[in-house]
Amino acid sequence: MELRLLKYFLEIANEENITKAAEKLHITQPTLSRQIAGLEQEIGRKLYTRESYGIRLTEEGRLLKKRAQEILELEEKTLTELTGTNIRGTVFIGAGETAGVKNISKVLRDLRRDYPDINYRMISGDAEDISDKLAKGLIDFGLFVGKVNLKDYECVTLSEADRWGLIIRRDDELAGKKFIAPEDLRGRELLFSHQAKSHGEFSEWLGYNMNELDIIGTHNLAYNASVMVREGLGILITIEGIVNTSRENGLKFIPLRPEIKAELVLAWKKEAVLSKAAQKFLDIFRASVSPNH
After folding, report:
1. What is the 3-state secondary structure (H, E, C) of 250-285?
2. How far apart are CA 195 and CA 97, in angstroms?
3. pLDDT tens, position by position, for the chain (293 residues)?
4. Nearest residue to 91 via CA among 250, 261, 271, 274
5. 97 φψ region: left (φ > 0), alpha (ψ -120 to 50), beta (else)
6. Which residues share a beta bridge with 166?
């Protein structure tokens, strides 16, 4: 299966229109159609069906789109790592939503100062997304929040930790509280991140069955959920520092009591062959962390 054909197919899948894809690829529509027909023949499956407005991917086409994205990202990463003899290239980092990204930012700043030919690509997602990309070699490092199964990884634990709490409107009846207790959540419409909902320590903190909570929605990244809170749809369980809670934004963060903190861990695959750029990032990151960690 040629990478060129995967690129062609991915363009069609993204555009959902063969003519538009051909224009972006600077080839004729008949040529593109013949190339993809050859790919279908090689695979032995139909990848799309024609519709009046364009094309619609089959189940096999949707799977190939996902795999093609991963293959082409891995191709780009490999070429970046092998190019040139100087320390250059791209460091690929995945991270959940956390204020701990500031630690990554400081290391990248120092790295770029000493090695200006090193760039980075930051990919956001929840723990499941980051673990999947790390396992497939699509990223070099993953920054995880809270308890995650890291038995297959090497890791460094940061000296800082994220604090769990509640994001509410400033005119909410709970806004005057300094801390949120488990009983304060009863009878309230709640928005949870996937990570918070599966966080074992939160269940322990709650002290009663989570099924007794009115969880009206879940999300993997907090920004959209915070907009919903601002518009009066529920209150948000999340970590501190990732949502704008300024007075002008109309939102407020209140920590949980007893306090729950989520440790921050930078992880990479055991016995991974890191690029020179990735190894240099790791060296600087390790040096930046407290000796006790």
Report:
1. CEEEEEECCCCEEEEEEEEECCCCCCHHHHHHHHHH
2. 10
3. 789 999 999 999 999 999 999 999 999 999 999 999 999 999 999 999 988 888 999 999 999 999 999 898 888 877 766 665 567 889 999 998 888 888 899 999 999 898 888 999 999 888 888 889 998 889 999 998 877 778 889 999 888 888 999 999 999 999 999 999 999 999 999 998 776 666 567 878 888 888 899 999 988 778 889 999 999 999 999 889 888 898 999 999 999 999 988 889 999 998 888 888 899 999 999 988 855 44
4. 274
5. beta
6. 237, 254
Backbone conformation region of residue 121, classed left if phi is above 0, alpha if psi is from -120 to 50, else beta: beta
**Do residues 75 and 3 touch, judged by C-beta distance below 8 A?**
yes
Bond preceding residue 182 cis, omega within 30 of 0: no
Task: Enumerate domains of the chain plus CATH numbers.
Answer: 3-77 (1.10.10.10), 80-160+263-288 (3.40.190.10), 163-260 (3.40.190.10)
Give this prediction's pTM: 0.66
Asked whether the beta carbons of 100 and 162 are under 8 A apart, the reply is yes
- The DSSP string of 49-107 is EE-SSSEEE-HHHHHHHHHHHHHHHHHHHHHHHHS-SSS-EEEEEEE-S-TTHHHHHHH
